């Protein structure tokens, strides 16, 4: 059993001080003491802004229409929270938008959180070293319609990675097109039987029978045995052509994110990527995706 280190996000968060440089101080003084500055413009600004905040047990919270009460932090405390989310025990070096959004979703707020997230990502050596360099010209987007959760899955094989215990060097990846939920399993060899076992264990027994599976033309996906198995389960199989790989672009994007996360987390300790995969998947599933505005975890479990 692996014991994760205790969560450290809250360790350095202190009660609110009366520091005049703290953005929270004028709001707190107005809410608690009714104190306002002499300047009329500043008075109006503080009153207008304070409507969105409240005090609870000595802490300042921001009201939100889409989130629970958000605990207000100083910029120093906010940077500490961002660093924990970015490269803590279950961090996967996510980008600027996802980093700020995730801090918001776990219940924190400060005015400069987006700028601070950009600063942290730009200063992260691993993020800069393994950042994606896009060389392909822009193309029109291809819409892939999925009627409901877990009805349409895309599958692909990633690797080889550095050799891990058990001779594992490949990653079999599947993603649901509706929720963006991802399942992945490290394997030593990708065979027809391994693919069938993965689909049964990670997709069918967890989320029910899908209507359609999309994959490339690899032998592991188009053998007679697996074709008969899919036909017996009434699952439609769709292959992507070499000339039009965009048909499975969702999986390609996910694979790229997973590979980057593995590289950033492991750096030079490449053989331990299997051990880190669980926490990388957890980070991916709980990070809001740009296409939906929600995390896969929220769309699957509703929280």
TrEMBL record:
Gene3D superfamilies, per the entry: 1.10.340.70, Ribonuclease H-like superfamily/Ribonuclease H (3.30.420.10)
Single GO MF annotation: nucleic acid binding
Domain Integrase catalytic: 143-303
Domain of life: Eukaryota
Transmembrane annotation, as ranges: none
Stored Pfam families: Integrase_H2C2, rve
GO biological process: DNA integration
Signal peptide: none
Full protein name: Integrase catalytic domain-containing protein
């Amino acid at each position: 059993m692996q014991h994760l280190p205790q969560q450290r996000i809250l360790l350095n968060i202190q009660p609110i001080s009366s520091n005049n440089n703290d953005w929270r101080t004028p709001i707190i003084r107005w809410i608690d003491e009714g104190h306002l500055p002499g300047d009329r413009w500043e008075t109006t600004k503080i009153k207008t802004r304070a409507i969105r905040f409240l005090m609870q047990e000595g802490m300042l919270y921001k009201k939100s229409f889409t989130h629970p009460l958000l605990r207000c932090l100083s910029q120093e405390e906010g940077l500490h929270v961002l660093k924990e989310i970015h490269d803590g025990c279950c961090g996967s070096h996510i980008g600027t938008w996802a980093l700020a959004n995730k801090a918001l979703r776990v219940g924190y707020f400060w005015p400069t959180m987006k700028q601070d997230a950009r600063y942290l990502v730009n200063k992260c050596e691993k993020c800069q070293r393994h950042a994606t360099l896009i060389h392909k010209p822009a193309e029109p987007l291809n819409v892939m319609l999925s009627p409901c959760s877990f009805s349409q899955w895309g599958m692909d094989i990633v690797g080889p990675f550095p050799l891990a215990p058990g001779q594992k060097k490949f990653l079999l990846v599947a993603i649901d097109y509706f929720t963006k939920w991802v399942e992945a399993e490290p394997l030593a060899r990708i065979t027809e039987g391994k693919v069938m076992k993965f689909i049964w264990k990670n997709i069918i027994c967890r989320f029910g029978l899908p209507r359609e599976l999309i994959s490339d033309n690899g032998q592991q996906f188009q053998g007679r045995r697996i074709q008969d198995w899919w036909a017996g389960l009434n699952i439609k199989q769709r292959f992507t052509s070499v000339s039009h790989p965009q048909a499975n672009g969702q999986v390609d994007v996910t694979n790229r994110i997973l590979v980057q996360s593995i590289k950033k987390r492991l750096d030079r300790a490449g053989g331990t990527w299997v051990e880190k995969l669980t926490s990388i998947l957890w980070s991916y599933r709980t990070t809001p995706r740009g296409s939906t505005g929600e995390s896969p975890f929220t769309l699957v479990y509703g929280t």
